[in-house]
Amino acid sequence: MTQKNKTLGEFIIENQEEFKYSSGELSRLINSIRLAAKVVNHEVNKAGLVDILGAVGETNIQGENQQKLDVFANEAFIKTLTNREIVCGIASEEEDDFITITGRNERNENKYVVLIDPLDGSSNIDVNVSVGTIFSIYRRVTPSGEPVTLDDFLQPGNRQVAAGYIVYGTSTMIVYTTGHGVNGFTLNPAIGTYYLSHPNMTFPKTGRIYSVNEGNYVHFPQGIKDYIKYCQKEEGDRPYTSRYIGSLVSDFHRNMIKGGIYIYPNTAKDPNGKLRLLYECNPMAFLAEQAGGKASNGFERILDIQPTELHQRVPFICGSSSMVEKAEAFMQNTID
Ligand code: P6P
Q1: 190 burial via Cβ count (<10 Å: 0-12, 13-18, 19+)
Q2: Model confidence pLDDT, tens digit, residues 187-217
Q3: Pocket of ligand 1 (CB under 6 A)
Q4: How far is the CA of 247 from the centre of ligand 1 (A)?
Q5: Domains within the chain, CATH numbers bracketed
């Protein structure tokens, strides 16, 4: 079958043998994420038409206003993953603690846990700018059949078995990896089917786009200030172009296609950075590396960081490898 008219379902079946140890569970897990994404996509696309905009008046553990779509997306993914009894535990940006999934017989023999940011970039919802869902999948480390513990979730990103995102943009796409490259699938909303539209996605080694919220410039570490000035300097192929959507999934997706770097450093408001390690940085870092890019906190590989808490934040520099290396050199003051 030619690449261009392969569906996500056909792709999963064709690549089943790549999910080592999996008895089809990982395939069923990706399929359940596909279903939940369609449910969320339907609501996101009509957000302006029904009274689903605006905050529910509550805040999540991040201290952020919860948007109604945040709550809807969180419930959609948790319900789908729970009903299909494919995972033994779930952690979500919208949930203070992880959720234990017990099977019908109270013993859950499933071997995967999922960590999700159900609707990233939600501050863009009310202004009709693209948002996304980010997911990260690990094999549990505690004994099968027992309730999951925090140890199952606090695994370094280099232990992920799969990761991906859904971008609800001008078109809805699922982009994911199981450790064998990155592939993108575009939803045909007329028939509710995802088609392989972006096979073997790869980050260009370099690029001319930098994505950072320069409103926080005065609070950036000196190395990031120096890197931004480097991007803006008239020299060689510079100045670069500044593009910042305020939605990690959208900025990442554009940079992976065109080449570029995304930076969210520590700031006065977020001394450890704003992005969460477990369900934003690790999955995006896994995708970036699988696509030939890089992801670091300025000093070490994101995927090697040993997590210490569920909602911990880290500084995040991610994108084309040569751009990330240059930013790291400024951060480590080893620029020549
Ligand atoms: P700021 C959205 O809240 C998010 O987590 C990312 O999707 C986005 O890149 C970033 O925060 C935007 O944060 O502080 O620039 O508005």
Answers
A1: exposed
A2: 999 999 999 999 999 999 999 999 999 999 9
A3: 120-121, 123, 213, 246-248, 251, 274-275
A4: 6
A5: 3-198 (3.30.540.10), 209-331 (3.40.190.80)
